[in-house]
Each structure stands twice: as structure tokens, then as C-alpha cells.
Amino acid sequence: MEITLTTPALLFPAISLLLLAYTNRFMALANLIRSLKSRYASTHSHLVYGQIENLRIRLVLIRNMQAFGIASMFGCVFCMFILFAGYSTVGKYTFGLSLLLLMISLALALREIQISVKALELELDDLEETTAQ
Predict the structure, then answer these.
(1) Quick one: pLDDT band at residue 93, thresholds 50, 70, 90?
(2) Which of 126, 115, 120, 122 minimizes the C-alpha distance to 54?
(3) What is the pTM of this model?
(4) How far apart are CA 39 and CA 47, in angstroms?
(5) Alpha-carbon span 13 to 15, nearest angstrom
(6) SS (H, E, C) the chain
(7) Span 60-77, pLDDT tens digits
(8) Partner of 71 at 20 to 30 A CA spacing, among 39, 91, 116, 125?
């Protein structure tokens, strides 16, 4: 397989948009944590505390998603530099590593979404219990 200087550059828009989406998720979680903290301070609800613990796990996942996404972008830039220098074999391996890092980032994003859905199910269960009473 022949890899050119433009091959890793094709990932730039995708990775940039992905990092923007990760940042938006992070900001939404930060706002949610602040509101749940004040809600927990006034109610000491176990449900709210459970949500906060859930958010702690999600924050770690988002941090790692961003780290692997940034590492993937760095790998693409480094690959371009290596290809520019004329080392196509090393460039191929570097590009492959960048793709692997991107796949890890996406896998973490999938896990974070699964945890997010679990948190919403807790809220729905609480709503159903409140409505049933």
C-alpha cells in the first residue's frame, strides 16, 4: 500500500470534529455536576449521589477519549513529517498507530455513552417510582 502526505491529512477534519464533540460532552457534564452538587447539598438524596458517582466515571472516560484523540492527531501530524522526510515505511507504521489511537478513543466514547444511558435509566426509574406513589 502506498501512503502519501495527504493520506494522514484526511483525518484532520474528522478528528477535529470528534474533539469538538468530546469538549461539548465535557462542558455539559461540568454543568451537570455543578447543579447536582448543589442539589445533593440540599437533599442528600442517594439517587443524586449515585448520579454524581456515575459522572465521576464519565469524566475519566471523557478525559481519556480526548487524550487518545489528541494523540491520534499528533500521530497524523508526525506521520506527515516522517513522510515528508522520505521515510515511507516508518510513516505507514506511524499512520497505523494513529488509526489505532483513534479507534481507542472511539471505543471509550462508546463506553461513555453506555454509562450515560444507564444514568438516564436511573432517572426514569426514579420518575416511575415517584409517579407510582
Answers:
(1) very high
(2) 115
(3) 0.82
(4) 11
(5) 6
(6) CCCCCHHHHCHHHHHHHHHHHHHHHHHHHHHHHHHHHHHHHHHCCHHHHHHHHHHHHHHHHHHHHHHHHHHHHHHHHHHHHHHHCCCHHHHHHHHHHHHHHHHHHHHHHHHHHHHHHHHHHHHHHHHHHHHHC
(7) 999 999 999 999 999 999
(8) 116
